[in-house]
Amino acid sequence: MLEPKVMEFLSRHFFSLKSKKIIVGVSGGPDSLALLHFLWGQKDKRNLSIVAAHVDHMFRGQESLDDALFVKDYCKQHDIPFEMSRINIPLIMERTGNSSQVAAREERYKFFETIMEKYDYPYLALAHHGDDQIETMLMRMTRGSTGKARAGIPFTRPFHRGMIFRPFLTLTKEEIEQYCRENQLTPRIDPSNKKSIYSRNRFRKEVLPFLKMENPNVHEHFQRFSEDLQSDEAFLQELTVQNMNKVMTIREKSKISMDIKPFLDMPLPLQRRGIQLILNYLYKEKPASLSAVHIEQIFSIIYHSGPSGKLNFPNGLMVIRSYQTMSFQFEDSSVQNYYYVVHDDSKIDLPDGGSIRVKLVHKEPSEYDSNSAIFNAARIKWPIVIRTRKNGDRMSLKGMSGTRKLKDIFIDYKVPLQERDTWPVITDGDHSIIWLPGLKKSAMEGTDSSAKQYLLLTYKT
């Protein structure tokens, strides 16, 4: 019964076993042992080449070593090449801080890559089944996963230089155990599979029996649902990429900026996927704490905040709204406050690539613009200071009485939040702000008929 069901499932996915070279992940439990036995039974009929790969995670001492020896003995009896590795996962957990499941999975897949490389076999077969699919999808939806993650376990996915495939997704756990009994297989049982400390085991023991009582074929419906979600998601992702390429204004390794107006013209399902696309790009490894809640926070500052807003995400990612620009960037410790003291003619190169030229001239320049400022040199106290802004900075403005906060000037000119902290501020020796380049000139700026010498400041971006 198992073989025709699996072969029909493979055929439906246009996947042929003929002449495949396959590494089989085998723990020694019922699922993986049944998969190894099934593929071994197809070996001659389909001209298969198979290698069994086993990892001892060293959680259970002699007991887990016995699992490895059991798989090794099975492979010897059936003339199947066998590879194994003993990896001290508890030690790796201590070193990395990862959970047992995360650490074990990472090391296990590294080992599979090594064996695929050694034999030059492009396929890795894993024994996930229909019950696993239900548990995974329910767990991810409960956790708040988004997009493709909600589709659960894919039948195939790229891996290393080849592909992972899972031929047992069409089967239930009970069908696999029945197959083991019919073929006199005596798999090893990992006692951790019964511990309720693992959320998967709680779903397995409490939720899954209820669903199967409602419908014994519920796994088939979940599998179809998974496949529908995956195909729909692939189509929507393609549309999202096409649209996001039109709205992104900056795309760098650690920073992406987008124009909000055309972004809001996109359909909402593409907007959500567009944000997810950005997060996936910037986070090489997505933090476990990142969830759908964070995407809702982003939409909150897009739709409901004022012209500016800022969110602090896991691992130092900042999401900044500044007027009609939304930026996603990691905190850059290389960008620091600066403070340059100038005593004579000089050119100061700024960290952002711009520059300020300080020059004494003996006659009034014939022309100058918003990127230049001129002062009666006799009225300026030296040294000139070029620095970044400070809290409470104010300046007297040309043609106006009193002073104005720099913060308000930045707002008036809609200077993006992320640029304000690096914008040059120029003061004299009395700490009076005499110029905010490109934006505002102070009351001290301008020509003076009594001047014998002028201070000329020029800003280049």
UniProtKB/TrEMBL annotation:
Decide whether keyword Ligase is in the record: yes
The protein's matches in Pfam families, at most eight in alphabetical order, are given as: ATP_bind_3, TilS, TilS_C
Q: Which InterPro entries match?
A: Lysidine-tRNA-synth_C (IPR012796), Rossmann-like_a/b/a_fold (IPR014729), TilS/TtcA_N (IPR011063), tRNA_Ile_lys_synt (IPR012094), tRNA_Ile_lys_synt_N (IPR012795), tRNA_Ile_lys_synt_subst-bd (IPR015262)
Question: Which Gene Ontology CC terms are recorded?
Answer: cytoplasm
Q: Where is the Lysidine-tRNA(Ile) synthetase C-terminal domain?
A: 384-457
Please tell me where ATP binds in this chain: 27-32
Where is the major localization of this protein? Answer: cytoplasm
Is the keyword Nuclease assigned to this protein? no
Catalysed reactions, semicolon-separated: cytidine(34) in tRNA(Ile2) + L-lysine + ATP = lysidine(34) in tRNA(Ile2) + AMP + diphosphate + H(+)
Which superkingdom is the protein from?
A: Bacteria
Q: Where in the cell is it found?
A: Cytoplasm
Family membership noted in the UniProt record: Belongs to the tRNA(Ile)-lysidine synthase family.
Q: What is known of its domains?
A: The N-terminal region contains the highly conserved SGGXDS motif, predicted to be a P-loop motif involved in ATP binding.
Q: What does this protein do?
A: Ligates lysine onto the cytidine present at position 34 of the AUA codon-specific tRNA(Ile) that contains the anticodon CAU, in an ATP-dependent manner. Cytidine is converted to lysidine, thus changing the amino acid specificity of the tRNA from methionine to isoleucine.
Q: What is this protein called?
A: tRNA(Ile)-lysidine synthase
